[in-house]
């Protein structure tokens, strides 16, 4: 069974058709990159898949369960998802230590007795911090972390209990080259050891070529998909990032910020 199935997805934001009739599936334990120019609808697609943004048409099934119109999923399915956004806006606003924050990742969705699972929770947090090299950060406040440390802590949050689907929206944004490399190598290792299925929005085509199994090329519609060596061929990229190729109603802004095509 596919971990994620998307069929005929359509998302309109502020009157702009952001995602148009997109269909694809993610096989278990695959690593898929979602690429495309700025404004191509990548974050809108990911937001709709997670039920964070309403969809106007289409079906999303996660682990065989249909996502409700307002993003509803059974709690046991939600418990198996994790999302790493570009930034964590709460970082400087919550006086939480790293260990306390990672503990929230262990808590199952729904009400829970405050004293239940204490020992198991503590040991899961310790193990998650160790797996991600965050042990020395356990007592630090989130607000004291550098961008690279915070990204590792977010991976600890994901790995603190078993999950099936991990969605990342430019999770490496703002990191320098060595930190980006470290983040991706940790993600790659954890994906293998934890059996995660990964969907990651990225502008880093070199990383996508090196580590992903499948690529979805989006410019409002799915323009092509397949293994990186085919989907990221020079000809496909020139079509995907062609500034003249701006689908949609008049007034839709032209995508910009194309990566260097090699
Ligand atoms: N919060 C919002 N409200 C209304 N429209 C939005 C919002 N966010 C994005 N849009 C519009 O939706 C369309 C798709 O944007 P989206 O952010 O999904 O693209 P993207 O491919 O993720 O871009 P980027 O690579 O720049 O992050 C764009 O036309 C954008 O202006």
Please tell me about this protein's structure.
- The chain is of the alpha/beta class.
- Helix content is 32%, strand content 23%.
- It contains nine helices and ten strands.
- The chain has helices spanning 42-49, 75-78, 98-106, 118-131, 147-159, 177-194, 205-211, 228-231, 234-240; strands spanning 4-13, 16-26, 31-35, 57-62, 65-66, 81-84, 165-169, 197-201, 214-219, 221-226.
- α5 runs parallel beside α6 (177-194).
- The longest helix has 18 residues, at 177-194.
- The two termini are 36 Å apart.
- The chain binds adenosine-5'-triphosphate.
- The site of adenosine-5'-triphosphate has 12 residues, from β2 and α1.
- Pfam families: ABC_tran.
- Residues 241-262 are annotated as: Disordered.
- It comes from Cyanobium gracile UHCC 0139.
Please trace the helix and strand order, writing H or E for each element: EEEHEEHEHHHEHEHEEHH
Poorly predicted segments: 249-262
What is the CA-CA span between the terminal residues? 36 Å
Q: Could you say which small molecules are bound to this protein?
A: adenosine-5'-triphosphate
C-alpha-based Rg, rounded: 19 Å
* Helicity, as a percent range: 25-40%
| Largest sheet: spatial strand order | 6-7-8-3-9-10
- How much strand? 15-25%
Arithmetic mean of pLDDT: 88
Form type: globular
According to DSSP, the number of beta strands is 10
Largest sheet: 6 strands, mixed
GO molecular function, one term: ATP binding
Family: Belongs to the ABC transporter superfamily.
InterPro entries: AAA+_ATPase (IPR003593), ABC_transporter-like_ATP-bd (IPR003439), Metal_Ion_Import_ABC (IPR050153), P-loop_NTPase (IPR027417)
Region (Disordered): 241-262
């Amino acid at each position: 069974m596919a971990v994620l199935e998307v069929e005929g997805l359509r998302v309109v934001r502020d009157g702009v058709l952001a995602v148009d009739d997109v269909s694809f599936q993610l096989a278990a334990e695959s690593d898929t990159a979602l690429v495309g120019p700025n404004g191509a609808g990548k974050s809108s697609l990911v937001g709709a898949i997670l039920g964070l943004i309403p969809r106007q048409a289409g079906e999303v099934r996660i682990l065989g369960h249909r996502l409700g119109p307002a993003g509803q999923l059974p709690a046991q399915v939600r418990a198996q998802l994790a999302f790493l956004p570009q930034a964590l806006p709460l970082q400087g606003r919550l006086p939480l230590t790293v260990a306390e924050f990672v503990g929230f990742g262990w808590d199952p969705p729904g009400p829970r007795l405050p004293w239940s699972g204490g020992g198991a929770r503590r040991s899961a947090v310790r193990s998650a911090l160790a797996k991600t090299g965050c042990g020395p950060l356990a007592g630090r406040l989130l607000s004291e972390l550098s961008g690279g440390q915070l990204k590792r802590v977010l991976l600890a949050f994901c790995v603190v209990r078993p999950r099936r689907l991990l969605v990342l929206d430019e999770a490496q944004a703002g990191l320098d080259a060595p930190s980006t490399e470290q983040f991706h190598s940790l993600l790659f290792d954890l994906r293998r050891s934890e059996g995660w299925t990964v969907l990651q929005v990225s502008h880093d085509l070199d990383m996508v070529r090196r580590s992903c199994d499948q690529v979805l090329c989006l410019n409002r519609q799915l323009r092509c998909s397949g293994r990186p060596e085919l989907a990221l061929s020079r000809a496909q990229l020139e079509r995907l990032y062609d500034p003249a190729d701006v689908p949609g109603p008049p007034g839709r802004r032209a995508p910009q910020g194309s990566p260097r095509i090699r």
